[in-house]
Amino acid sequence: MTASPLAFDFSCHCPHVACGDMISAPQSRVCPVCGGDLIRCPSCRATNRLLSAHCRACGKHIASESWPAHAGIKNAEALFSAIQSIDPPRQLMRLGASATVQMVAADGVLVVPLGDSSISLVSESSRREITRLDLPEPVASTAAIRSGRLFAASGKNIFAFDLARHLDLASRAEIGPAWIFESERGPVIQPLLADAERVYLSARDGHRTMIEAVSQKSGARMWAAPVVLETLQAAPPLLVKNLLVIIAHSGDGLVVESESGRVLGKFSLGRRLSHVTPYVTGARALIVDADNNVYEIALSEKGLTVNLIYTHAARILTIAASEEFIAIGHLSGLTLLNSRGNAMWSNDMLESISVAPIIAANTILALDDAGTGLLFEAIRSNPSSRVKLLGGEILTPPVMTHSSLAAVNAAGELAIAEWR
Ligand SMILES: [Zn+2]
Ligand SMILES: [Zn+2]
Fold it and tell me: Where do the structural domains in the chain lie, given as residue ranges?
């Protein structure tokens, strides 16, 4: 039996409008004719342009925005399968400026803010810089990618770039912002948060923090008035379902309706928070207090509940979680808990792990302070493999996409390693 002659096989044609040529290699992620980057639909393998929201063949939503290590912020929508193996990175890319702010990624593209006020967009497949965006001031807090748009804070402004559109154009030289939002107050001081419609920002206003919501489409203000926190000492705001949870280091917090900016309630944890960035997964956030206690903040119909779920004997440096596991990085290694906070194992014989690990199904990838990627299985405390990713000072967590793991050091050297 032969295939219907009417069927167009989207998996072997270039997705770029001006090209559309045949791509014979089934796994290829670069068009051999036009050199354009492409991503594959996880459902049907059709080729799609970078940052596509929906597959052009089967129409399914492509969760290409991949930031499982986007600490403190909503966990990735993309679900990753277990990591079987990691190839050593081929060679480090030198980006030419310091990189001290966490990068973000979508399938096919890595977004690395640099100390020289630029943002480098790197092709994951060709390992080349696609283009560079120039901003007036360096990006000081984590950017966000949503529906093909990049939102980056520079000083008092938020810049929105329509990457999905621009990355398809032959001339990528001039990528201007789709809009620029200016905060009436001081600079943006916390990572940006994005849900389906809005971007949330925290700006300094004297000794206070002002939280505002901006429309992703237009850059317009979405709330009648900003939410005020009477201190600058606070954890990054957390987006848990349709609520923003804002917690000061003093332990006092606010619950805000994300749509309206209405303060629904105030609470006090009765303890000081540590500087460990909280981690959000599903309908709960995990926070760490100054005494290395891990609390779960859970949201349900009944409201907000705070439960102590685990106490670590030494200083906690970082935390990450999935629906099933909680991974804790500390000065001597990694500890794995189940979702209820019961210890599964602890490895205290490693280098420090101070950036958030990645949890992919029942595997955990931790980047230690020496730049080695340690791959763990949830059942064993000894790493199943170790891959040297890079050296130098590690300040920001690695990121994961459907095909790569990427890490950058403070000197701006970028390692991209393929995983299977
Ligand atoms: Zn092409
Ligand atoms: Zn598809």
Answer: 7-62, 93-418
- The fold adopted by the segment(s) 93-418 is Methylamine Dehydrogenase; Chain H (2.130.10)
Please tell me the distance between residue 170's alpha carbon and the centre of ligand 1 in angstroms: 11
Cβ atoms of residues 365 and 398 within 8 Å: yes
Q: Which long-range contacts (CB under 8 A, 24 or more apart) does 330-339 make?
A: 334/364, 334/366, 334/374, 334/376, 336/364, 336/376, 336/378, 336/381, 337/294, 337/309, 337/310
pLDDT digit string (tens) for 288-336?
A: 999 999 999 998 888 889 999 999 999 999 999 988 999 999 999 999 9
Condensed to tens digits (0 to 9), the pLDDT of residues 144-174 reads 988 889 999 999 999 999 888 877 765 555 7
Ligand 2 geometric centre to CA of 350 (Å): 42
Instruction: Work out the burial of residue 94: count CB atoms within 10 Å of its CB; fewer than 13 is exposed, 13-18 middle, 19 or more buried.
Output: exposed
Taking a C-beta distance cutoff of 8 angstroms, is the pair 215, 222 a contact? yes
**Residues at Cβ < 5 Å from ligand 1 ion:** 14, 16, 19, 21, 31, 33-34, 36
Segments in the chain below pLDDT 70: 1-7, 64-79, 169-173
